[in-house]
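Entry 0007
Protein: FBX21 protein
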Amino acid sequence: MPHINAAAALQISMLLLALPAQYFLSQWYGTDSAERVQITERLIIASWSISARSYLSLDAWADRLKLWLSKTRTCLYVELLILHFRNWYYGENKTKSGDNDAKPHSYFAESTHVHSPKPEYIKFRVGQVIIHRRFGYSGVIVGWDVKANTPEERLQPRYPPVKQDLKDTPHYRILINQANGFGKSTAYVPEEEITVIIGLEVYHPDMETYFTGYDGSKYIMQPWLKKLYPHD
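Output (structure tokens):
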């Protein structure tokens, strides 16, 4: 049934108050009992007539129902439009994001392609804790590339002519242990610059994203990461 709005409720209230109000007004104007009865009868008849037209008429309720349905259809249409736009927007962006994720050439060992088979010359594994030989910071391996996979403009200053051969050696992405106070959050380093250490835990805000825990020798990969590095 259609909902009675504020205007209709006010009208009903006024009609209900009209009878006692008329009675008290008639007292102030000094009408006699016969006149008061006559006025009251007219008020009752008028009130009944208005109520019958407004709330006891099937036509009136049919008009209200049509108005309510038209508003409901409008709201439903707007909701459907919003839902359609939302599905289109997020579906479009999800597709674009999926296309980007599927690219196997993401830089700094962040590619989402499955690293299988694993070449025998890749010495270290995801989840192992390492220490940098030159800078002394510790960290944990979260990914590797068979050779340096960085933008060319970053490779040139990093590897002078005497170290050009390092570009073709395995590189590892490291979450740097914040306990070192090193100042950097991550690193991307060649294999010859790191060595594995056992029994050292790493503190970094992204640890739970990559690992489920530490078994005393290495960190246990999250299922999604294990799928990318099934042989580590």
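Curator remark: The longest helix spans residues 58-102. Residues 36-89 form one domain.
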